[in-house]
Known about the structure:
Mean pLDDT: 94
Strand content: 15-25%
Helix content: 40-55%
Number of strands: 5
Bound molecules: adenosine-5'-diphosphate
Shape: globular
Largest sheet: 5 strands, parallel
Amino acid sequence: xxxxxxxxxxxxxxxxxxxxxxxxxxxxxxxxxxxxxxxxxxxxxxxxxxxxxxxxxxxxxxxxxxxxxxxxxxxxxxxxxxxxxxxxxxxxxxxxxxxxxxxxxxxxxxxxxxxxxxxxxxxxxxxxxxxxxxxxxxxxxxxxxxxxxxxxxxxxxxxxxxxx
Length: 164
Ligand code: ADP
């Protein structure tokens, strides 16, 4: 069985993330979407468990997709779960340098794991979790940016966190 991992912060999951997950699910027998808990990153809007739960609700129809949370090295996670590839979405040139560095590091740590880059859909090229949060904070519509299943929960949380 060919297993792939789609890692990320997913704070929250967007249509851009979901598109990459959907396309990965077509190429592999099983996809593990891993919510990476990174203590060095600035505080998140949603807890890891909330992010996992939101991804589960959006991927319900995808029978070969499971969701997990993880603190640690992705290369180790892949070994433990027999995953042969990490699939990442590339939006623009600006994503490239950091992703390339991560891919080479992971290759050193786990030579059996490939990193595969999938180009973002043109319509989601601009989309990131931070864009969603910024637009929502200032009252703009995020209906086209996030899956409908989780839209209301996101708006509720962002509005509740507003500092002005
Ligand atoms: P973000 O950069 O939005 O915080 P993550 O760290 O959760 O996203 O990203 C997880 C993966 O999803 C990364 O490989 C990232 O490049 C990819 N990704 C994020 N947004 C998009 C998008 N709009 N289209 C394609 N891939 C995306």
